[in-house]
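task queued by scheduler; priority normal; single chain, no ligands, no partner chains; default sampling; output format set to C-alpha coordinates
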Amino acid sequence: MFPPLDPERAEERRERFAARRARFRAIPVRMLVPNLITLLALCAGLTGLRLAIEGKIEYALYAIVFAAALDGIDGRIARMIKGTSRFGAELDSLADFVNFGVVPALILYFWSLHDLKAPGWIAAMVFAICAGLRLARFNVAIDDPGKPAWSAKFFTGMPAPAGAITVLLPIYVHLLGIPHLGFPVTLTLIYTLAIAFLMVSRLPVLSGKKIGKRISPDMVAPVFLLVVMFVALLIAYPWEVLTAGTLLYLASLPFGFREYRRLVQADAVAAASTAAAGHAAGVPHPPPPTPPAAPTADRDRPARLN
Protein backbone atom coordinates (compact mmCIF):
# COMPACT_ATOMS: atom_id res chain seq x y z
CA MET A 1 0.00 0.00 0.00
CA PHE A 2 1.03 3.60 -0.66
CA PRO A 3 1.94 5.67 2.38
CA PRO A 4 -0.59 8.39 3.26
CA LEU A 5 0.15 11.86 1.89
CA ASP A 6 1.29 14.57 4.20
CA PRO A 7 -1.64 16.96 4.90
CA GLU A 8 0.33 19.96 3.69
CA ARG A 9 1.27 18.24 0.43
CA ALA A 10 -2.32 17.10 -0.07
CA GLU A 11 -3.56 20.67 0.38
CA GLU A 12 -0.94 21.92 -2.08
CA ARG A 13 -2.06 19.38 -4.67
CA ARG A 14 -5.69 20.41 -4.25
CA GLU A 15 -4.77 24.07 -4.75
CA ARG A 16 -2.82 23.26 -7.92
CA PHE A 17 -5.73 21.21 -9.26
CA ALA A 18 -8.19 24.03 -8.51
CA ALA A 19 -5.93 26.56 -10.24
CA ARG A 20 -5.66 24.27 -13.27
CA ARG A 21 -9.44 23.96 -13.48
CA ALA A 22 -9.91 27.70 -13.14
CA ARG A 23 -7.56 28.23 -16.08
CA PHE A 24 -9.85 26.22 -18.38
CA ARG A 25 -13.20 27.52 -17.17
CA ALA A 26 -15.66 28.89 -19.71
CA ILE A 27 -15.25 32.52 -20.78
CA PRO A 28 -18.43 34.63 -21.04
CA VAL A 29 -19.30 35.76 -24.56
CA ARG A 30 -19.51 39.37 -23.36
CA MET A 31 -15.76 39.23 -22.74
CA LEU A 32 -15.12 38.26 -26.36
CA VAL A 33 -17.28 40.82 -28.18
CA PRO A 34 -15.05 43.90 -27.54
CA ASN A 35 -11.94 41.92 -28.48
CA LEU A 36 -13.56 40.84 -31.74
CA ILE A 37 -14.28 44.48 -32.56
CA THR A 38 -10.64 45.36 -31.80
CA LEU A 39 -9.44 42.54 -34.06
CA LEU A 40 -11.76 43.74 -36.81
CA ALA A 41 -10.24 47.22 -36.48
CA LEU A 42 -6.77 45.68 -36.72
CA CYS A 43 -7.80 43.84 -39.88
CA ALA A 44 -9.03 47.14 -41.35
CA GLY A 45 -5.73 48.85 -40.54
CA LEU A 46 -3.63 46.07 -42.05
CA THR A 47 -5.85 46.04 -45.13
CA GLY A 48 -5.30 49.79 -45.43
CA LEU A 49 -1.55 49.14 -45.44
CA ARG A 50 -1.89 46.62 -48.25
CA LEU A 51 -4.03 49.04 -50.28
CA ALA A 52 -1.44 51.79 -49.79
CA ILE A 53 1.33 49.49 -51.04
CA GLU A 54 -0.80 48.75 -54.11
CA GLY A 55 -1.24 52.48 -54.73
CA LYS A 56 -4.94 52.56 -53.83
CA ILE A 57 -4.60 55.51 -51.45
CA GLU A 58 -8.30 56.41 -51.37
CA TYR A 59 -9.34 52.93 -50.25
CA ALA A 60 -6.50 52.90 -47.73
CA LEU A 61 -7.96 56.06 -46.17
CA TYR A 62 -11.39 54.44 -46.03
CA ALA A 63 -9.85 51.55 -44.10
CA ILE A 64 -8.17 53.88 -41.58
CA VAL A 65 -11.39 55.82 -40.98
CA PHE A 66 -13.26 52.54 -40.50
CA ALA A 67 -10.62 51.37 -38.01
CA ALA A 68 -10.92 54.67 -36.11
CA ALA A 69 -14.71 54.26 -35.94
CA LEU A 70 -14.34 50.75 -34.54
CA ASP A 71 -11.74 51.95 -32.04
CA GLY A 72 -14.21 54.56 -30.81
CA ILE A 73 -16.89 52.00 -29.99
CA ASP A 74 -15.01 48.94 -28.68
CA GLY A 75 -14.19 50.51 -25.32
CA ARG A 76 -17.70 51.89 -24.88
CA ILE A 77 -19.25 48.54 -25.69
CA ALA A 78 -16.87 46.80 -23.28
CA ARG A 79 -17.96 49.12 -20.47
CA MET A 80 -21.65 48.85 -21.37
CA ILE A 81 -21.73 45.02 -21.31
CA LYS A 82 -19.13 44.75 -18.51
CA GLY A 83 -16.70 42.98 -20.81
CA THR A 84 -13.50 44.79 -19.85
CA SER A 85 -10.35 42.76 -19.32
CA ARG A 86 -6.62 43.29 -19.06
CA PHE A 87 -6.15 41.16 -22.18
CA GLY A 88 -8.52 43.43 -24.09
CA ALA A 89 -6.68 46.52 -22.87
CA GLU A 90 -3.33 45.25 -24.13
CA LEU A 91 -4.82 44.07 -27.43
CA ASP A 92 -6.47 47.45 -27.94
CA SER A 93 -3.20 49.27 -27.32
CA LEU A 94 -1.25 47.09 -29.77
CA ALA A 95 -3.95 47.48 -32.42
CA ASP A 96 -3.87 51.26 -31.97
CA PHE A 97 -0.11 51.33 -32.53
CA VAL A 98 -0.48 49.47 -35.81
CA ASN A 99 -3.63 51.23 -37.04
CA PHE A 100 -2.81 54.78 -35.98
CA GLY A 101 0.98 54.78 -35.84
CA VAL A 102 2.50 52.44 -38.41
CA VAL A 103 -0.16 52.42 -41.12
CA PRO A 104 -0.72 56.22 -41.46
CA ALA A 105 3.04 56.80 -41.50
CA LEU A 106 3.51 54.31 -44.33
CA ILE A 107 0.51 55.67 -46.24
CA LEU A 108 2.10 59.13 -46.19
CA TYR A 109 5.46 57.66 -47.19
CA PHE A 110 4.04 55.73 -50.16
CA TRP A 111 1.96 58.76 -51.17
CA SER A 112 4.61 61.51 -51.28
CA LEU A 113 7.27 61.36 -48.54
CA HIS A 114 9.25 58.79 -50.54
CA ASP A 115 10.15 61.62 -52.94
CA LEU A 116 12.40 63.04 -50.20
CA LYS A 117 14.08 59.64 -49.73
CA ALA A 118 15.84 59.49 -46.33
CA PRO A 119 14.22 62.61 -44.76
CA GLY A 120 10.78 61.39 -45.79
CA TRP A 121 11.40 57.96 -44.27
CA ILE A 122 12.71 59.55 -41.08
CA ALA A 123 9.54 61.66 -40.77
CA ALA A 124 7.37 58.56 -41.22
CA MET A 125 9.38 56.68 -38.59
CA VAL A 126 9.20 59.59 -36.16
CA PHE A 127 5.42 59.69 -36.45
CA ALA A 128 5.08 55.94 -35.84
CA ILE A 129 7.50 56.08 -32.89
CA CYS A 130 5.67 59.05 -31.35
CA ALA A 131 2.39 57.16 -31.61
CA GLY A 132 3.98 54.21 -29.79
CA LEU A 133 5.44 56.49 -27.12
CA ARG A 134 2.10 58.21 -26.65
CA LEU A 135 0.31 54.89 -26.13
CA ALA A 136 3.04 53.57 -23.81
CA ARG A 137 2.89 56.73 -21.70
CA PHE A 138 -0.87 56.40 -21.37
CA ASN A 139 -0.62 52.72 -20.44
CA VAL A 140 1.85 53.22 -17.60
CA ALA A 141 0.35 56.46 -16.27
CA ILE A 142 -0.64 56.12 -12.61
CA ASP A 143 -3.70 57.96 -11.40
CA ASP A 144 -3.02 60.58 -8.77
CA PRO A 145 -5.62 60.26 -5.97
CA GLY A 146 -5.28 63.99 -5.28
CA LYS A 147 -6.02 64.93 -8.86
CA PRO A 148 -9.19 67.00 -9.41
CA ALA A 149 -12.17 65.21 -10.91
CA TRP A 150 -12.33 67.55 -13.91
CA SER A 151 -8.94 66.35 -15.17
CA ALA A 152 -10.70 63.27 -16.56
CA LYS A 153 -12.02 65.53 -19.33
CA PHE A 154 -8.54 65.90 -20.83
CA PHE A 155 -5.94 63.78 -22.56
CA THR A 156 -2.23 64.47 -22.29
CA GLY A 157 -1.22 65.14 -25.87
CA MET A 158 -3.20 64.37 -29.00
CA PRO A 159 -4.71 60.84 -28.91
CA ALA A 160 -3.33 58.34 -31.40
CA PRO A 161 -6.59 57.88 -33.42
CA ALA A 162 -7.01 61.65 -33.71
CA GLY A 163 -3.35 61.97 -34.69
CA ALA A 164 -3.80 59.38 -37.44
CA ILE A 165 -6.87 61.07 -38.92
CA THR A 166 -5.27 64.52 -38.58
CA VAL A 167 -1.86 63.68 -40.09
CA LEU A 168 -3.54 62.52 -43.31
CA LEU A 169 -4.86 66.04 -44.02
CA PRO A 170 -2.44 66.60 -46.97
CA ILE A 171 -3.97 63.60 -48.75
CA TYR A 172 -7.54 64.84 -48.10
CA VAL A 173 -6.66 68.22 -49.61
CA HIS A 174 -5.03 66.55 -52.61
CA LEU A 175 -8.08 64.36 -53.22
CA LEU A 176 -10.39 67.38 -53.16
CA GLY A 177 -9.01 68.16 -56.62
CA ILE A 178 -9.00 71.94 -56.13
CA PRO A 179 -6.42 73.57 -58.45
CA HIS A 180 -3.56 75.43 -56.78
CA LEU A 181 -4.48 73.89 -53.44
CA GLY A 182 -2.21 71.23 -52.04
CA PHE A 183 0.67 70.38 -49.75
CA PRO A 184 4.17 70.43 -51.22
CA VAL A 185 6.14 67.40 -50.13
CA THR A 186 8.38 69.50 -47.86
CA LEU A 187 5.35 71.01 -46.13
CA THR A 188 3.91 67.50 -45.75
CA LEU A 189 7.10 66.44 -43.96
CA ILE A 190 6.94 69.43 -41.58
CA TYR A 191 3.24 68.85 -40.93
CA THR A 192 3.85 65.16 -40.16
CA LEU A 193 6.53 66.03 -37.63
CA ALA A 194 4.27 68.68 -36.05
CA ILE A 195 1.44 66.20 -35.48
CA ALA A 196 3.94 63.68 -34.10
CA PHE A 197 5.14 66.32 -31.62
CA LEU A 198 1.55 67.07 -30.55
CA MET A 199 1.01 63.39 -29.72
CA VAL A 200 3.99 63.23 -27.32
CA SER A 201 3.53 66.75 -25.95
CA ARG A 202 2.01 67.65 -22.58
CA LEU A 203 -0.74 69.68 -24.24
CA PRO A 204 -4.12 69.18 -22.51
CA VAL A 205 -6.61 68.00 -25.14
CA LEU A 206 -10.33 67.65 -24.53
CA SER A 207 -11.14 63.95 -24.47
CA GLY A 208 -14.87 63.97 -25.12
CA LYS A 209 -15.32 60.79 -23.04
CA LYS A 210 -17.88 62.51 -20.85
CA ILE A 211 -20.04 63.31 -23.87
CA GLY A 212 -22.87 60.96 -24.70
CA LYS A 213 -23.12 58.98 -21.48
CA ARG A 214 -26.58 60.33 -20.72
CA ILE A 215 -29.04 61.70 -23.27
CA SER A 216 -32.32 63.40 -22.51
CA PRO A 217 -35.36 61.54 -23.92
CA ASP A 218 -36.24 64.65 -25.92
CA MET A 219 -32.82 64.55 -27.63
CA VAL A 220 -32.86 60.90 -28.75
CA ALA A 221 -34.47 61.57 -32.14
CA PRO A 222 -32.28 64.63 -32.94
CA VAL A 223 -29.14 62.68 -32.01
CA PHE A 224 -30.14 59.80 -34.29
CA LEU A 225 -30.84 62.28 -37.09
CA LEU A 226 -27.48 64.02 -36.66
CA VAL A 227 -25.57 60.73 -36.67
CA VAL A 228 -27.37 59.54 -39.80
CA MET A 229 -26.72 62.87 -41.52
CA PHE A 230 -23.03 62.79 -40.58
CA VAL A 231 -22.57 59.25 -41.88
CA ALA A 232 -24.43 60.13 -45.09
CA LEU A 233 -22.25 63.21 -45.63
CA LEU A 234 -19.10 61.22 -44.89
CA ILE A 235 -20.06 58.63 -47.50
CA ALA A 236 -21.16 61.19 -50.11
CA TYR A 237 -18.41 63.78 -49.53
CA PRO A 238 -15.61 61.96 -47.67
CA TRP A 239 -12.72 64.34 -48.41
CA GLU A 240 -14.71 67.50 -47.74
CA VAL A 241 -15.98 66.14 -44.41
CA LEU A 242 -12.56 64.83 -43.34
CA THR A 243 -10.84 68.09 -44.32
CA ALA A 244 -13.37 70.24 -42.47
CA GLY A 245 -13.35 67.94 -39.44
CA THR A 246 -9.55 67.94 -39.26
CA LEU A 247 -9.34 71.73 -39.48
CA LEU A 248 -12.03 72.15 -36.81
CA TYR A 249 -10.21 69.71 -34.53
CA LEU A 250 -6.92 71.54 -34.91
CA ALA A 251 -8.68 74.84 -34.27
CA SER A 252 -10.20 73.44 -31.06
CA LEU A 253 -6.83 72.63 -29.46
CA PRO A 254 -6.22 76.17 -28.09
CA PHE A 255 -9.71 76.20 -26.58
CA GLY A 256 -9.00 72.95 -24.75
CA PHE A 257 -5.77 74.38 -23.36
CA ARG A 258 -7.56 77.56 -22.28
CA GLU A 259 -10.30 75.55 -20.56
CA TYR A 260 -7.69 73.51 -18.71
CA ARG A 261 -5.91 76.65 -17.50
CA ARG A 262 -9.23 78.14 -16.39
CA LEU A 263 -10.03 75.08 -14.29
CA VAL A 264 -6.54 75.11 -12.76
CA GLN A 265 -6.91 78.77 -11.83
CA ALA A 266 -10.39 78.19 -10.41
CA ASP A 267 -9.01 75.41 -8.18
CA ALA A 268 -6.19 77.69 -7.04
CA VAL A 269 -8.65 80.49 -6.17
CA ALA A 270 -10.92 78.07 -4.27
CA ALA A 271 -7.96 76.68 -2.31
CA ALA A 272 -6.75 80.19 -1.46
CA SER A 273 -10.24 81.20 -0.28
CA THR A 274 -10.48 78.12 1.93
CA ALA A 275 -7.06 78.82 3.41
CA ALA A 276 -7.98 82.47 4.08
CA ALA A 277 -11.23 81.49 5.76
CA GLY A 278 -9.46 78.95 7.96
CA HIS A 279 -6.79 81.48 8.90
CA ALA A 280 -9.41 84.08 9.82
CA ALA A 281 -11.17 81.56 12.04
CA GLY A 282 -7.89 80.65 13.72
CA VAL A 283 -7.99 77.10 12.40
CA PRO A 284 -4.64 75.81 11.15
CA HIS A 285 -4.91 74.86 7.55
CA PRO A 286 -2.35 72.94 5.52
CA PRO A 287 -1.01 74.57 2.37
CA PRO A 288 -3.10 73.89 -0.70
CA PRO A 289 -1.83 71.16 -3.02
CA THR A 290 0.00 72.27 -6.12
CA PRO A 291 -2.33 72.04 -9.12
CA PRO A 292 -1.26 69.51 -11.77
CA ALA A 293 0.83 70.85 -14.61
CA ALA A 294 -0.97 68.61 -17.07
CA PRO A 295 -3.27 65.59 -16.91
CA THR A 296 -1.52 62.24 -16.74
CA ALA A 297 -4.39 59.79 -17.18
CA ASP A 298 -8.16 59.56 -16.89
CA ARG A 299 -9.44 59.42 -13.34
CA ASP A 300 -11.98 56.77 -14.26
CA ARG A 301 -9.67 55.08 -16.72
CA PRO A 302 -11.33 51.87 -17.94
CA ALA A 303 -9.62 48.52 -18.15
CA ARG A 304 -9.51 48.90 -21.93
CA LEU A 305 -6.95 51.57 -22.78
CA ASN A 306 -7.18 54.41 -25.22
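post-processing summary
- The chain is about 70% helix and 0% strand.
- The two ends are 60 Å apart (CA to CA).
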